[in-house]
UniProtKB/TrEMBL annotation:
PANTHER family: MACROLIDE EXPORT PROTEIN MACA, MULTIDRUG RESISTANCE PROTEIN MDTA
Name of this chain's protein: Macrolide-specific efflux protein MacA
Listed InterPro entries: MacA_alpha-hairpin_sf (IPR030190), MdtA-like_HH (IPR058624)
Domain Multidrug resistance protein MdtA-like alpha-helical hairpin: start-end pairs: 1-60
UniProt entry keywords in alphabetical sequence: Coiled coil
KW ATP-binding (keyword) present: no
GO cellular component, one term: efflux pump complex
Presence of keyword Coiled coil: yes
Organism: human gut metagenome
Gene Ontology biological process: xenobiotic detoxification by transmembrane export across the plasma membrane
GO molecular function annotation: efflux transmembrane transporter activity
Amino acid sequence: ARVTYSRQQRLAQTQAVSQQDLDTAATEMAVKQAQIGTIDAQIKRNQASLDTAKTNLDYTRIVAPMA
């Protein structure tokens, strides 16, 4: 999205592309950046859940009856 936006900016300077196309590229880039932020937050939440599960596993003790 960033590459497309940069290309559209260069073309817009020479008026080889419409302002609407440039705006569309900018919007798409903003959407992709927001999606990246959402995914990063999801990764952090999942990592925290994994860390909690590992900690809980450390507290686990299996006791077998004596034979």
